Amino acid sequence: MSRDHVQSAERSAAEAPPAALTGAETPFLELLARGASADAYEQPVLLARAEGRPAETIGALERAKLLALRVRAELEGRRRREAELSALFETAHDLAGLRDLDAVLKAIVQRARSLLGTDVAYLSLNDPERGDTYMRVTEGSVAARFQQLRLGMGEGLGGLVAQTARPYVTDDYFKDGRFQHTRTIDAGVRDEGLVAILGVPLMLGHHVIGVLFAADRRARVFEREQIALLGSFAALAAAAIDTANLLTETRSALAGLERANEIIRDRSAVIERASDVHDRLAELVLRGGGVHDVAAAVSQVLDGTVEFTEAADTAAAPLEASRAEGHAVRHEDDWIAAVTAGGELLGALVLRGHPGLDPVDQLTLERAAMVTSLLLLARRSAADAEQRVRGELLDDLLDARDRDPRLLRERASRLHADLDSTHVVLAARLDGPAADAEQEAAARRRLGAAASHLAATRHGLAAARDGGTVLLLPLTSGDTATDLARRTARHLGTAVHEPVTVGASAPVRDLAAHPDHVAAGYAEGRRCLEALRLLGRAGDGAAAEDFGFLGLLLAGDRDIAGFVDRTIGQVVAYDERRGTDLVRTLDAYFTCGMSPARTKDALHVHVNTVAQRLERVGRLLGDDWQDPARVLEIQLALRLHRLSAPAQH
């Protein structure tokens, strides 16, 4: 039964004369007691008519029904008002204990949607900076575009509410011409499927700060009580926003006071930190601490990350500014303090990610840079002394002046070197262009320092020699002289930022007993170095074994047997094991101009036999054994093998 019909019936019942209570009220009282729907109240009347009851009885039932419906409507209205008041009370309670503005606004929107029984409820706020309004909270929305809507002032139903500061309701949004439709807003509303929309303003004083909406996806008429209820929720939402703004301002003021208090406390702490860092740095110097120990100590004092960096790895402009001014210089979020000694730039102390630096802390970083320079000078002095000792021992080995094996071993042992292990002698030289003699000398000094550092870390020796550097490095298991040469070239080139060419000797052994092996290995390494430069392989590393038969010309000991074994050793060994004639067949094949037909005549065998033997040779030497470069080496190895074989009687 419709609400208008019920109200009309109630008026008729009110106009009817009062009647004495009869048994007709009983079924309707039961319906009221169990909260039945309005339609159920027709059943007692219909049943009486169906049973043929007297007209007086049916009339009494009709009057009782109308009274019961009026009572039911009154009870529903009171329950609804009670629920609305309860929701408003709960929302006001949430506002009183405001902790999270978003949570309070969401609760307001949820309760408004629930009490009005709408599909969607949402709240928009004005953005003074952008001059528009945006969705702040939605409930029941399913369309992403709708949830992200931004409306220009005066656009859509919300714009009309904001302009007039009055509630507005539309039964059918797309047919309503009272407000300005835009493509963006209409698309969002269409995505959400909304039809009926009610909007009420959020007011702070006389200013509209947003709009609270309730909307349905079907045509609907919003009643006056529902508009008033949504307005009450809007007032609470505005109060929540105002309270949150006041709390934000209060917190900001308190934060300002707290910062001022922190500054006062920090000033006292700065003095204590300055005294603390002075004591720590003094202790580090006295107990022989290193550069990284200084950085770690200053990191703790400054409550940040301090690192020592090489000059080449530091931003050039701020580093040069710090060097010129004698103070730490800010670079983006870092502070850079140059580490210098006598005008020489040794590196920098960098405080990472600490843009706001107190003047006293800046002075602390500068003092730490000064202490770092002193430690670097001390370390350099010690390194220079060790470098001289290593260089002197290697010079003695090269010149073979001291032949006492015991004394050589003792001197090497003090430098953590072992002359009884297998070593490789490497000759290294710079190959970058030098602008003048001064730059060339500086480059050679860098090469010498890098070589000495490499020798110290690898338990080897290094010395300046013949305009370059010579190194004596141990050969580890599984490594080759070629591998070591190439690795050393890369390492030294990276260290000095210029190409460095390295030639290596064959492995040398028993250096304490035979120091002359060092000199012979150095001569071989230099010949290999020159070969690399002549071949245009500057900046590379290689050993004599890399040059094939040219290695015979480079090698000091002319390792003929080694060359023959590397080139045709597998074929020789196969003949010795199987009693075959592969070597003789291979020699005849080259003598006959690599013609199988002439080879079979020279050997007095069938041509298929020659083919089978050559196929076996290919499996032993590899598929490329007939390439021109390999052919030359194989023919030379065959000749050397024939010449070195004992004479046949």
End-to-end span in angstroms?
A: 136 Å
Secondary structure: number of strands:
15
In DSSP terms, counting alpha (H) and pi (I) runs of 4 or more, how many helices?
22
Helix content: 55-70%
Shape: elongated
- As laid out across the biggest beta sheet, the strand order is 3-2-1-6-5-4
Low-pLDDT runs: 12-21
The major pleated sheet works out as: 6 strands, antiparallel
Average residue-wise pLDDT:
79
Strand content: 5-15%
* Cα-atom radius of gyration: 50 Å
Structural class: alpha+beta
Structure, described:
With 649 residues, the chain is α+β, with helices and mostly antiparallel strands. Helix content is 58%, strand content 14%. It is built from 22 helices and 15 strands. It has helices spanning 3-15, 26-34, 43-50, 55-96, 101-116, 144-147, 156-164, 183-192, 224-286, 291-302, 316-325, 359-399, 405-414, 437-457, 481-496, 516-534, 550-554, 560-578, 582-591, 596-603, 607-621, 628-644; strands spanning 120-127, 132-139, 150-152, 168-170, 196-204, 207-216, 305-309, 329-331, 334-341, 344-352, 423-430, 461-465, 468-474, 500-504, 541-543. The strands form 3 sheets. The protein has a 6-stranded antiparallel sheet, with helices on both faces. Strand 1 and strand 2 (132-139) form a beta hairpin. It is elongated, with a radius of gyration of 50 Å. The chain starts with a helix and ends in a 5-residue tail after the last helix. Residues 12-21 have low confidence and may be disordered.
